[in-house]
Write a structure and sequence with these properties.
about 625 residues, alpha+beta, Beta-Lactamase, Alpha-Beta Plaits, 4 domains, 6-stranded antiparallel β-sheet, 6-stranded mixed β-sheet, about 50% helix, elongated
Length: about 625
């Protein structure tokens, strides 16, 4: 059993409920079965009820009641919106949990005297509610009913997976109500619906047998003969199935379309007509998951108009797809958690036999060469706010996908709001070739991310290659230093490798205040002179060092005569009270000029300590 996900037993229960829905048209029987299944599979569930909103009476009507109730009395209760736990859930249109006696009493206080009397008579003496969970039945974004589960034993409490299960069962109940209505209104289409039921059973069997999402998509495509796409909640394609005539350009169009339309969806389905490649199509977009937690969308591109019953059958298929996505998502989240725990401990430098065993289970040979790199992303324009969870998940997905495309052995995980990648290379490869390949990978990833998130401020730090897992934490620390340098100092490119750091390592080992003090001590008079006269001496000095102190090359780069350059150098020497022939003084000036170019807040210079202290 995994926390915050459905257990295997609960998944089987949902499949059973689905099969019951598909095997009966009697809505009362279906409701009784749904409620009985929910109570039996939820440990804390002692009783429960299913309510449907009657628009004519403007009340919630109890359709099923099981547990410690006297149903014939309980079903006489008719609730207003906002009345008791059930009515409050209906009004909020979201799942509510009432954890203790105080919260339950507060909710029950809203009951009318008539309904309170009925409730008290429907519950045996000495029985009290200890906790309650209540979830809305939503249909096309509208709340049409509520399922409530009650606990009567103080030692038992509802768990997070119980809430997830109840939400999923409410989705099934919504399907049951919708199908019941369709059957009543369109009895002449029974034969067509029976085919839909067979499809639903077959899909359920695919899930039970562990066939996977792609097999489910292929089956749906075979049944309807149209092209279908499956996208996650942020528009990343999961899989597709379709006609061979469908071009790559058309597939790319749908990828872009999905990213645009998913954030704007306001209902469980949208149906529209589009023209693509000179041909007319019907585009159907079906929502996956629940209102509280989206799992993505199923998109169907049909050359023929699909009727209401066909679309409804596809919505039933979406339930099966949602269940499979929940299962696969649980596996992925567990893998990410285990990988994250492994990376966190690995980068702490605490290597032991247990960690080596975990490394082997994750296919990391302790004797291979390793490189760590970090992706740091913040939102512009302030450059301070971290990206949201869905964006982080997408960045992680993009990183791992690129590693797969490049056939690289490694993985990327989330670590303290940053993406950390660990790459493994063959021991015979040289350090220079490994770093070169890692740099190329980082730049490729940077370009892909910037194409999708143009306003995002990105930086990538790369550590040095380390022989074996025992030393990989050092590569991680070096990557962190690169990110720190990119964040705090000026650098021309957002990708920085520790092997490329020269004087920058000296910068990282000292505080900005110490660096500014050093610049002030060495270049202070020249900087003050520049600011007071707006001259070009400092830039001349920097160019002089960049050209390796070659007079002709420096003069040419500055587009000035060599005599002008010599005059400027002499003037610089006078201002700094230094002799360029003194190697020690020259080294200090060269180092100060290098550091000066990386300081972001140059407006803080010069720091005239003597004037400041005298004021």
């Amino acid at each position: 059993m995994m926390q915050d996900t459905l257990t295997h037993r609960q998944l089987k229960s949902l499949i059973h409920v689905s099969n019951v829905i598909n095997s009966s048209l009697d809505i009362d029987t279906i409701f009784d079965t749904i409620l009985n299944e929910a109570i039996s599979v939820v440990e804390a569930g002692g009783g429960g009820s299913i309510w449907v909103f009657d628009k004519q009476q403007d009340r919630l009507i109890a359709k099923s009641a099981q547990g410690l109730f006297y149903p014939h009395i309980f079903k006489s209760i008719k609730l207003h919106s906002g009345e008791s736990m059930t009515g409050m859930t209906f009004a909020a249109a979201k799942c509510l949990e009432f954890r203790n006696d105080a919260e339950i009493k507060q909710a029950l206080a809203a009951l009318t005297p008539f309904n309170r009397d009925l409730l008290e008579r429907s519950i045996p003496n000495n029985i009290q509610f200890t906790s309650v969970i209540s979830s809305p039945i939503l249909q096309k974004g509208e709340c049409i009913g509520v399922i409530t589960l009650d606990a009567f034993e103080k030692s038992l409490h509802f768990k997070q997976e119980d809430i997830h299960l109840l939400e999923a069962i409410c989705h099934q109940a919504a399907i049951a109500l919708e199908r019941s209505t369709l059957y009543r209104e369109k009895e002449k289409t029974v034969h067509k619906l029976s085919q839909s039921l067979e499809t639903h059973r077959n899909l359920a069997n695919l899930v039970v047998n562990g066939a996977g999402i792609q097999s489910i998509m292929e089956y749906i495509h075979k049944k309807i003969g149209q092209h279908i796409f499956l996208f996650d909640d942020i528009g990343v394609p999961i899989c597709s199935a379709g006609l061979s005539s469908f071009t790559e350009e058309m597939t790319e169009y749908f990828k872009q379309y999905a990213r645009q339309v998913i954030p704007l969806l306001e209902s469980s389905r949208t149906v529209s007509d589009i023209t693509l490649g000179g041909e007319n199509y019907q585009l159907i977009i079906l929502f996956l998951g629940s209102k509280l937690k989206s799992l993505g969308v199923l998109m169907i591109l049909s050359k023929q108009k699909m009727g209401e019953l066909d679309i409804s059958a596809l919505e039933h298929a979406c339930t099966i797809i949602s269940l499979e996505l929940v299962k696969e998502q649980a596996v992925i989240e567990t893998q990410q958690r285990l990988r994250g725990e492994f990376v966190t401990k690995l980068f702490s430098g605490q290597m032991d036999e247990t960690l080596i065993s975990k490394a082997k289970n994750l296919h990391f040979d302790p004797n291979r060469n390793y490189v760590a790199f970090i992706i740091n992303a913040v939102n512009q324009p302030n450059g301070q706010k971290s990206v949201d969870n869905s964006t982080s998940r997408n960045l992680l997905h993009m990183t791992n996908r690129l590693l797969q495309e490049r056939n690289l052995q490694g993985m990327a995980v989330m670590n303290e709001n940053q993406i950390v990648a660990l790459l493994s290379y063959h021991p015979k490869l040289s350090s220079s070739s490994i770093i070169a390949e890692t740099k190329e990978l980082a730049k490729m990833l940077l370009n892909r991310i910037q194409l999708k998130y143009q306003e995002m401020d990105l930086s990538i730090g790369i550590g040095r290659m380390k022989p074996g897992l025992l030393y990989v934490h050092q590569s991680f620390k070096e990557a962190i230093k690169c990110i720190k340098f990119l964040k705090n100092y000026q650098f021309e490119h957002p990708v920085l490798c520790y092997t490329d750091l020269g004087v920058q390592r000296f910068i990282l080992q000292n505080s900005e205040e110490e660096l500014i003090d050093f610049i002030q001590e060495v270049l202070g008079p020249l900087i003050e002179y520049e600011q007071s006269r707006k001259g070009e001496l400092l830039s001349t000095l920097i160019a002089y060092f960049e050209q390796n102190q070659n007079i002709k090359k420096t003069a040419a780069s500055l587009h000035i005569h060599t005599n002008t350059l010599n005059y400027r150098l002499k003037r610089i020497s006078e201002i700094l009270l230094t002799d360029f022939s003194d190697s020690q003084q020259l080294f200090n000036i060269l180092l100060a000029c290098n550091i000066y170019q990386y300081i972001k807040n140059k407006e803080t210079l010069p720091l005239n300590r003597s004037k400041t202290s005298s004021q």
